[in-house]
Structures are given as structure tokens and as C-alpha cells.
Amino acid sequence: MIAVGLGLLVGLVLGLTGAGGSIVAVPLLMAGLGWTLPQAGPVALLAVCAAATFGTVAAWDVTYVRYRAALLMALGAVVTAPLGLRAAHAWPLPLLSGLFAGVLVLVAVRMALQAWRVPAEAAVVRVNVAGNALPSRGAWVRLNDHGRIAWSAAALATVAAIGAVTGFAAGLLGVGGGFIIVPALRATSALSMHSAIATSLMAIALISAITVTGAALQGADLHWLQAGPFVLGALGGMLAGRRLAPRIAGPRLQAGFAALMLVVALGLGADALDFM
Predict the structure, then answer these.
(1) Domain residues of the chain, as ranges?
(2) I need a surface site. Which of 40, 74, 121, 130 has the fewest CB within 10 A?
């Protein structure tokens, strides 16, 4: 079945590279099943939700997840995800394709840079020789001596705003939003990369579930006959990818995937220009 094969490919790429699943899933569903972007987005988010939930469970034991921050981001997305869904159906398809192409370019450039600069950050928060947490470099989200977020009005507003932006993007383009959450958390706090990614996974799982539920409530046809096999295929592919990943050079793989995303972005951009 086509949906299973597409899901396997999405999951395999996700397991090998750690890239956002919907970044790959949306173009594949559009090309493989002939769907429009608004049709492909919610189904892609179903796979993202399943994969992010798996990743959250895997990360929870090492205490990297800042669950209060993830929950607050999800609350911010509750307001904006329905707005993004409405915009996805109201805005012209060429504009949506052009925006998605821009997102692909952004993620591809970020992944290519990571391929050349792979920081080894194993700690939840950096510590000095005395074992105390270093002062937060972020102006809005500060950390306490235990490396956890010190909740203030500024921290609450910042984290909620990150969730609101991510929710709108999820509704509009069907993207999980890791490319928004991780850089935003890193820019506004001193959370390590591991902690930012783990927290992002939980937030993505929640925001994806919220967005898919909102799409269903708005009467969207989620194509369950294709969505179910697609999600199962994605999970199977992700498990296979996680086993293969240690045997493949990570930086080279990321650089190759970044190049592939740029090619897809060019195709989507060309299609958008053809319809304008």
C-alpha cells in the first residue's frame, strides 16, 4: 500500500536524521497521494504526534524534559492552531506552497550548519567547577540552581508565545514545529540542546494532537484509510532508522538530507510560481 510505503520512508528518515517528520511527510503525501497541502498537513501531524510521543517517553527517564514548559506551549497553541487551520483553507495554495518551501530552506540550512558544527552537549545545564549552574544567558527564561526554569511573568509569556507561534505554524502548514521550539528555547534560556530537544518533543506531541483534533472538529476529512497505515509505517520506519543510525555517519547523512530538502523546496517553489 502506498500509504505504508510513504510512512516507512518518513519514519526511516526521521530515525536516521532526527529531522522533523512533517517536513518530509507533507511533500511526500502531496506527491504520492495527490493531496493538497491542507489535506496532507493533519495526516502528517498524526505521524509526528506518534513519533514525538515515542521520543518523549524515551527522553523522560533521563530527566531532560521540562514538562511544565511543554504544557504551557501546548496551552498557547490551543488558541492559535485553529486560526492556522482556518488560514490554511482560506489562503491560496500557491502562497501555502511558497511558505512551506521557505520552511524547508530554513530547516535545510540549519541542518547543514549542524552537520559541520556538531556540539557535544551532554548536560542538562552547563555547570562550573563548583558544580553550580551557570547564570542563564537568556534574558527572559532564567534557570535556577538545579537547571530548571525559574518561572516569572517574563518566562511565562515567552514560553506561551513560543507555543502560540508553533501552534499557528502547525495549523497552517502541518509542521510539528521543532524548528521553531528548539532554537527559541536555546535563544531565550540556558537549557542544553538535549533538554531543549526533549522538551520540544513533548510540546510537539501535544501541539500535533491539538491541531489534528481541531482539524477534525472543523470538519476536515483526515482520510483515515490512508492515515492509519501511514502512521504505522512511520513508526516502523523510525524504529528501523534508530537501529541503523549508529552505523551511518551522522554529519554526512544530515548534509545529504539537507540537500534533498533544498531540492524539494525548489520544486514546491516552482509549483507555486506556476500557479501565480
Answers:
(1) 2-275
(2) 130
